[in-house]
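Protein record
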Amino acid sequence: MDSSSDAHGRHRCAACFRQFNKMEHLVEHMRAARHSAHEPRCGLCGKHCRSFEALRDHLGVGGSTLPKATACADAFAARGCAICLRVTPHHRASCTLARTPRTPQAAAPPQGGGSGRALALGCKMVGAGSDGSLDVVARVCVVDEQENIVYEAFVKPLIPVTHYRYETTGIRPENLRDGGGAVTVKAAQRRVQDLLLAGEQPWKVRTSRGRARLLVGHGLDHDLDALGMDYPAYLKRDTAAYPPLMKTSKLSNSLRFLTRTYLGYEIQTGHQHPYEDCVAAMRLYRRMKEQGHTRRGGDADEPAASADQAFPAWRQRELERMTPEELLRLSTPDYRCWCLDD
């Protein structure tokens, strides 16, 4: 019996520990699963999980314990941190971040170009249309990596507002009038674009980053669409679309849930300031970026176009003779981990 088989002749995946009766089934599993060193992992048994939600289930965080993970769940309950999911006693206090106070516009720091290689964008919408269900941008905020406001403004919508959603936005009609300091959508778009491009030409950024900044946010496509903007996908860091932060069903989690679960404080209570959303998204990005993943170097950490690049069909017989550990070393992720950002 080779090293890839257990006592019952089954073949176990070195990442998720699933077992298969035939080696060819394990190879097919590796081809489909796209396991890599950049997946969330249990600090006790080393199991790879597709998302942090799956890891929380594995560790029994929040009362959900999988039948086969009771040993990890018991050990984690004794000395684990429910926020960062690390197995380190007396660690929770350093993981729980203090709630960022809502910052009124008058108290905003001097607006400049910001520092760091990433900016967070947050927008607040009001309602338009006959029933007020059409989202139009009414307030925009941009924050740098040090959580300083580099741009903030009320935005005058292009079409009449029928619902100001004051209970959550805190926006009044006078905030969006010409005399209230509101800028046009075009002016807000131009300012945000200038901050992101940092002097680079828009056509050049589509293929080469240069000095352009990464754009962090939650539901970025919605915010950019409201501003009438476009930005290259490879420069966007969207916490709503990042696979490790999504649900096991591959649906997005709300920013409020992600902040409470992985940062340890509450947001979006009462009147909501876009600065609060920007800070939460930036903190989530930094937390994901600082994951201590093992890098293999070269293109091994970059997402491949398809699993066939790592497990081509013409190598099937050779792959079936490999051990599960060797197959895992060949596997490439299907998303780009944020820990690879400069």
The longest strand covers residues 118-128. Residues 11-94+292-340 form one domain. The beta strands are 11-12, 19-20, 118-128, 134-144, 149-156, 161-163, 183-184, 214-217, 236-238. DSSP finds twelve helices and nine strands in the chain.
